[in-house]
Design brief:
This protein has 449 residues and is α/β, with parallel strands linked by helices. Among the domains are: 141 residues, FAD/NAD(P)-binding domain (3-Layer(bba) Sandwich); 144 residues, Polyamine Oxidase, Chain A, domain 2 (Alpha-Beta Complex). It is 33% helix and 23% strand. It is built from 16 helices and 21 strands. Strands 1, 2, 9, 10, 11, 12, 13 and 21 form an 8-stranded mixed beta sheet that branches. Strands 7-6-16-17-18-15-19 form a 7-stranded mixed beta sheet. Helix 1 runs parallel beside helix 10. It starts with a strand and ends with a helix. The relative contact order is 0.20. It holds the Pfam family Amino_oxidase. GO terms for molecular function: oxidoreductase activity. This is Putrescine oxidase. Belongs to the flavin monoamine oxidase family. InterPro entries: Amino_oxidase (IPR002937), FAD/NAD-bd_sf (IPR036188), Flavin_amine_oxidase (IPR001613), Flavin_MAO (IPR050703).
């Protein structure tokens, strides 16, 4: 058993943990980062599948993500815009694909009017919500006890409008059915991106990508640490703590530290044994947070054939198995790649199928948008983060009904020398890399102060 001593022990080599580590080290503190996986990056992972480069996890950069943009600049990483020239495709309840340009998809005059009204209403509620303390919202108690679906049903008699508004929060972001989370949780998701309108605008929220993949952020942060200060393949088993400090145990390493940062998703916090046990409400908190479920689908073709057909690659429908899809072709490649997403209860059904049947069903959904050429990719891959032992879902954790007002503030409080944080508890940039950076900075500054 190896014995070490550090000012700060950090559990998790994702963006939050590595941001905190580099910030603390720059301030003269000694650190060690302990990571269960054999790689850094957490929910960021760029890999080659059958010779094709795919971003298996997070990948997008949007204009409001100033902490991420600052970090990209500091690390010398370049970005490029997502391809978006041409027409988008929408499939309504009748199943017919329709091409369009602009922000509002083709629908009846009533549906379009309801969409505009609901977006404006949500923007108004979002403007009255503090991303750092949504539980302090004037109507927080009321808003946290009604599901997003029930609230939408109260607001509009137009089912198509409701389904599309729901898509932007439930399917596309929280990756949970809209009956399972509150209106307040939906408002937090929107305010973390600046407004509900920003979530609706794919050209804003899915603006740019990093040349070579977004995992380069944690990889380059990790390069600033010595080998002795970053240990991969070291899942933490126990944290023995008191007000004076803690001892962190892996299978073959023991680290004495004045402070500990647990920088992993909340659903993994209970994988660690704490001695003494953590306060009862902290243990209750984790039982009311859970990750969503989404399959990220990558399909690469010899050419981006949809561009020749006059399509941007942007496609969506709450009635399709693949609820949204985009041109995801890599910078400088002649091949074309589509990325699509299958979430929540639709993902349940797909994961119950044999792989070949699941692939066929998903490709048929892509073909509904792009035509029969979508059925024949040269490389196909599904990112299934629910199957990852050290993640178990995507994209991030959210609370069940009533959980945000009951436990939201508590999740930000330390327990003795232990602090918890990840993109799952971010205010601005919630569940994005931008939020992970912001939380990493905050945790480091709390320790330094």
């Amino acid at each position: 058993m190896e014995h070490l001593s550090r000012d700060v022990a950090i559990i998790g080599a994702g963006v939050t943990g590595l941001t905190a580590a580099t910030r603390l080290r720059a301030a003269g503190r000694s650190v060690i980062v302990l990571e269960a996986r054999d790689r850094v990056g957490g929910r960021l992972w760029t890999d080659h599948i059958d010779g094709q480069l795919f971003e298996l996890g997070g990948q997008w950069v949007s204009p409001d993500q100033t902490a991420l943009l600052e970090t990209l600049d500091e690390l010398g990483l370049d970005t490029y815009s997502r391809y978006r020239d041409g027409e988008s495709v929408y499939i309504g309840p009748g199943g017919t694909p329709v091409r369009f340009t602009g922000d509002i998809f083709p629908a009846s005059e009533h549906t379009q009017a309801e969409l505009v009204r609901l977006i404006a209403l949500l923007d108004e509620l979002v403007a009255a919500t503090d991303a750092a303390a949504p539980w302090a919202q004037q109507h927080a108690a009321e808003f946290d006890r009604i599901s997003f679906r029930s609230w939408l049903e109260q607001q509009s008699d137009d089912a198509e409008a409701r389904e599309n508004i729901s898509l932007f929060i439930a399917d596309a972001m929280l990756t949970k059915p809209s009956h399972s989370f509150s209106l307040l949780q939906a408002l937090l998701m929107a305010v973390s991106a600046g407004s509900f309108s920003n979530l609706v605008d794919a050209d804003f929220i899915l603006d740019k990508r990093v040349v070579g993949g977004l995992q380069q952020v944690p990889l380059r942060l990790a390069e600033q640490l010595d080998d002795a200060d970053l240990r991969l393949g070291h899942p933490v088993r126990t944290i023995a703590w008191s007000e004076a400090g803690a001892t962190v145990h892996t299978d073959d390493l023991e680290v004495e530290a004045r402070h500990v940062i647990v920088a992993v998703p909340p659903n993994l916090h209970s994988r660690i044994d704490y001695a003494p046990p953590l306060p009862r409400l902290r243990q209750q908190l984790w039982q009311h947070q859970s990750l969503g479920l989404v399959i990220k689908v990558h399909a690469t073709y010899d050419t981006p054939f949809w561009r020749a057909d006059g399509l941007s690659g942007t496609a969506f429908s709450p009635y399709q198995l693949v609820h949204e899809a985009y041109d995801n072709s890599n910078h400088g490649e002649t091949r074309g790649t589509l990325v699509g997403f299958v979430s929540d209860e639709k993902a349940d059904r797909m994961l119950a199928l044999p792989p070949a049947e699941r692939q066929q069903a998903i490709l048929e959904s892509l073909a509904a948008y792009y035509g029969p050429k979508a059925l024949e990719p040269v490389v196909y891959y599904e990112s299934d983060w629910a199957a990852e032992e050290w993640t178990q879902g995507a994209y991030a954790a959210s609370f069940d009904l009533g959980g945000l007002t009951r436990y939201g503030a508590l999740q930000l409080e330390p327990v003795g020398p232990i602090r918890f944080g990840s993109s799952d508890v971010a205010a601005l940039g919630y569940q994005h890399v931008d939020g992970a950076i912001r939380v990493g900075r905050r945790l480091a500054d709390e320790i330094l102060s």
